[in-house]
Amino acid sequence: MLSPFRWLRRRWLARAPFPQAWEPLVAKHFPFEASVPANERARFRRHLVVFATEKVFEGAKGLQVTDEMRVVVAGSAARLARNLSLDVYDDLVTVLLYAGAWERDGGTILGEAHRWGLVVLSWDSVKQGLVNPLDGHDVTLHELAHVLDLTDGRFDGTPEMASFSALHAWAHVFSAHYTTLRASPGRDKVLRAYGATNEAEFFAVATEAFFEKPRAMKQKHPELYAELARYYRVDPG
Ligand SMILES: [Zn+2]
Fold it and tell me: What is the pLDDT of residues 159-184, one digit of tens each?
């Protein structure tokens, strides 16, 4: 349940003007905003402000968190969830930013989402995702999709659904596409091979492709596209 404090603050935020200093950052990093209807743009900005205000942003190893970092991560969250409830990120508490990638167990990590309310991102990789907005690879969208996946309490590639029939249709389409990708990862022109890792990664990779290569996905995987469009309540293709 929304705490009274959070509820009051959100009401106050809804009435406050959008921060002037953030305007050029939004124009630079989220050009899609100019092409969506005014009400959708308003919801995007509302999500952005709530996310940027409510989440704790921390820099790892002395990294100073700037306004740009805050707006870029919050804007990516808002881009995904602009037509979803403001509550979808409520379980996320902290965004931890590293300057670059980090190593663990011999592997290079660009981002991580944890079920205890933490997302960790490499700022270099966040920027890389924005520089190539059409390549189907964006670490910020990827990790935030994992946060949405957890809205039903499970890290399983299925976020909280509006109804049982929506869940049924989703499961049917997703399992068929996941099985196909697993059979020949690397052959799909729209979905990255990493999506074959497990169902949770499949949803995160499919989300990246849906927002970055919507036309290609609509053409190549129309049923998958339709399920994502129904869930996110957007039709970018
Ligand atoms: Zn992932």
Answer: 999 899 999 999 999 999 999 999 99
Q: What is the pLDDT of residues 25-39, one digit of tens each?
A: 999 999 999 999 999
The phi and psi torsions of 97 (rounded to 5 degrees) equal -110, 130
Q: How far is the CA of 192 from the centre of ligand 1 (A)?
A: 12
Distance from C-alpha of 152 to C-alpha of 203, rounded to nearest angstrom:
14
User: Which of left, alpha, beta for 129 (phi over 0: left; psi -120 to 50: alpha)?
Assistant: alpha
Using the mean position of ligand 1's atoms as its centre, give its distance from the Cα of residue 11 in Å.
Answer: 33
Q: Where are the domains of the chain?
A: 4-130, 164-232
Token pair for 174? 């997703």
* Domain 4-130 CATH class label: mainly alpha
Tokens 């994502």, located at residue: 228
Residue whose tokens read 């957007």: 234
